[in-house]
Amino acid sequence: MISNPTLLAAMSSDDPNKLLLLADINWPTGHVYIQSRIGEKYWDNRKWIGVGQYGSVERAQSGSQLGDLMMMLQTIDLAIVNDAVSDNAVARDVKIYLGCMDENRRIEAAELIIYRFIGNVGVDSDTVKKIQLSLVGARARFRAAKNYLRYSAKAWRKLYPGDSYCDDIEGLQSGPLSSYDGSNAVGSGIGRSGGNDPVRRLK
Question: Which superkingdom is the protein from (predicted)?
């Protein structure tokens, strides 16, 4: 539910051009900040690059889980395509915000509306390349733990020190489900086999 009053007022106005989407993609080589309009816009002390008609977010096709999304970016920049192919972005998070602009076309308010994880990255080899990100929810990430946790717990914590995923798994394994508080606390793994257990423990 949208709670920001400025955003609610923009949604109820007769000018849909006040609204825009912003996406924060946590790519392995660094965050990518894009927005659905053209040009550059600034919000939250960051520069958001406009993709206009070359970017879209839509519901995933049949056969997917309810709530799964597909994000697409069209580009002729081979460097971007190479990054999409070579970088392992699976399990990285994507945040999508709904924003609104003032009379000067500056972003004055935005609110998080979608939080997903990258489940798959695909590239269509047409003249204009299409990079497709399949976005899945936390349940899909948990159910397919072996697909998303491809490293030892120690290596995962080193790569993503702010991610509580390993701790969540260990918390669930340590006792009955009713005893897990779901706090999403981030630890080092010390005291829980030192975080050195291989992926086999998730099989």
Answer: Bacteria
Task: Write the pLDDT tens digit of every residue in 106-142.
Answer: 999 999 999 999 988 888 877 788 899 999 887 766 6
The partner residues of 98 in beta bridges, in order of sequence, read 21, 111
> How far is Cα 203 from Cα 26, in angstroms, rounded to an integer?
27
Answering whether pTM is above 0.70, one says: no
Cβ contacts of residue 4 below 8 Å, gap of 6+?
109, 110, 111
Residues 6+ apart with CB under 8 A from 163: 156, 157, 186
CATH of 5-142, one of 2.40.10, 2.60.40, 2.60.120, 1.10.3470: 2.40.10
* CA proximity to 148, closest of 163, 127, 162, 130: 163
What is the DSSP-derived secondary structure letter of residue 65? P
